[in-house]
Design brief:
The chain has 455 residues and is mainly beta. The chain folds into three domains: 6-175, Immunoglobulins (Immunoglobulin-like, Sandwich); 185-313, Sandwich (Immunoglobulin-like), CATH 2.60.40.10; 323-452, Immunoglobulin-like (Sandwich), CATH 2.60.40. The protein is built from one helix and 35 strands. The protein starts with 5 loop residues before the first helix and ends with a strand. Residues 1-18 and 112-116 have low confidence and may be disordered.
């Protein structure tokens, strides 16, 4: 929900020729006995003006204020769309019954700047004396051509407190605003949530997008739920399906990755989140990624249920040749050297620094691929052994080699492949599986890419 100055709204309606009218004031009719009586006019009781007509995501959101100008409450107030339809200025018609538009009241309030949550669309409410009600209309999948600029509709207003059974309200020529992010950013699903991209970077074979969400409303977001709404795409036309390749992984706060995340978000509270796409663009040529997330809450009606990350630029600081790709941005891994010992066994030395902010317990290393040299020779990973800080080499086959790392600690690590290597080989490429009980890495592998063998 977004609310602007009411005076600014009224001025905008005058300038743009927008009309919100009800029956003519002081109109008379025959009462059946030959006498004339005044027809009740809604304008005698309620001021009407719009505060919003805006594209949000794929939808259009309209908010119309009904201000009680009397000293008495207007009880059992109910609004509905006349004929159940809305039209735009390029000929599109949106029907409520067809699912093209949903409508809902806002709960009544005495302060237009502290409007509470939207209520049920079929529920009547009491408008307090000198208070407000706001009629909320959400049109789903509004004008995909993005060419419509105005909106018109008719309403029927009724209340047990007013003389007439019902009142017609005509709302024509609403100017449509469009402040959406269309590229290189996040297209929000509602002004109640403020999103910010913190980082979008390749990590090993994974693309990781870090972002923040701030609750910009006065309402606690109960059961705020996110999951990947649809397939992700990159600028090369590659599609990453939600049910394949691990795409759909989300993490919030210090939690691990899940397909769906639900949490509470207090007013003005901020939480950081991460999206992970596994096996992202093996050509290493993609420059941007677009990702939709589904967003719902049990205590708030969003203008759109999808937040869209659109053409987010991708950073790539990985070592692509002659070094090691870390599986996580908070794990610093540096290549030291690779040699062949007297048995022609390969020995690779490297260091690991734990920058995760916590202890890494049961840090487990396993061979994850055969070792391939530059002569196309392949060596089995079941001959791998591991050493940490100068310890004896131990086999990692099946259970893996396990160690622990304190927060901020650096260890020296080594891998020995106990198979004689071709002495003419100049470099080797292979992967090591890595996991921990206390932290989930972005990628599950350490990638050793064309590391040079010293002579």
């Amino acid at each position: 929900m977004k609310h602007i100055s009411l005076w600014a709204s009224i001025i905008a309606m005058i300038v743009c020729g927008i009309t919100i009218t009800s029956c003519s004031k002081d109109e008379e009719k025959d009462n059946g006995g030959g006498e004339k009586e005044k027809v009740s006019n809604l304008d005698d009781y309620v001021d009407k003006y719009y505060i919003r007509c805006e594209r949000v995501g794929a939808n259009l959101v309209v908010e119309v204020v009904f201000e009680n100008i009397t000293d008495n409450a207007i009880n059992d107030a109910l609004l509905k769309l006349k004929d159940g339809k809305i039209t735009d200025n390029i000929g599109n018609v949106y029907y409520v019954d067809a699912g093209g538009a949903t409508t809902a009241y806002l709960t009544n309030t005495t302060d237009i700047n502290t409007i509470p949550n939207y209520g049920n669309k079929w529920t009547s409410l009491n408008i307090p004396a000198k208070g407000y009600a706001v009629y909320f209309i959400k049109i789903l999948n509004f004008d995909p051509s993005n060419k419509a600029t105005q909106l018109s509709f008719d309403l029927i207003f009724s209340s047990s407190s007013l003389p007439a059974e019902s009142y017609d309200v005509t709302a024509h020529g609403f100017i449509i605003t469009d402040n959406r992010v269309m590229e290189n950013g996040i297209q929000t699903n509602d002004t109640a949530l403020v999103y910010k991209v913190l980082n979008c970077e390749r990590v090993g074979s994974v693309l990781q997008i870090d972002f923040s969400i701030t609750n910009n409303s006065a309402i606690e977001m109960g059961n705020l739920t996110f999951n990947c709404a649809d397939n992700a795409v990159d600028d090369l036309g590659n599609t990453y399906y939600t049910n394949l390749s691990g795409y759909g992984d989300l993490a919030f706060g210090a939690g691990g990755y899940k397909n769906r995340y639900t949490f509470q978000l207090k007013p003005h509270e901020t939480i950081n989140g991460r999206i992970r796409i596994n096996n992202f663009d093996t050509t290493n040529k993609a420059k941007t990624a677009s990702i939709p997330l589904s967003c719902t809450s049990s205590s708030y009606v969003f203008s759109d249920n999808v937040v869209r990350f659109i053409t987010i630029p991708i950073k790539d600081n990985r070592i692509l040749y002659g070094g090691i790709q870390s599986p996580d941005l908070k794990l610093d891994i540096n290549f030291v050297n690779a040699t062949l010992d007297e048995n022609r066994y390969l020995v690779v030395n490297y260091t690991i620094t734990n920058n995760t902010g916590g202890n890494l317990t049961n840090l487990t290393f396993k061979g994850d691929s055969n070792i391939l040299d530059d002569l196309s020779n392949s060596y089995y990973d079941n001959s791998m052994k591991f050493s940490f800080n100068g310890s004896d080499f131990t086999s990692a086959w099946w259970v893996g080699a396990i160690t622990n790392m304190a927060a901020g600690a650096t260890i020296s690590a080594a891998i020995k492949v106990e198979t004689p290597f071709n002495t003419n080989a100049k470099n080797v490429t292979f992967d090591i599986g890595l996991s921990s009980d206390s932290y989930e890495f972005a990628d599950s592998k350490i990638h050793f890419i064309a590391i040079p063998i010293q002579r």
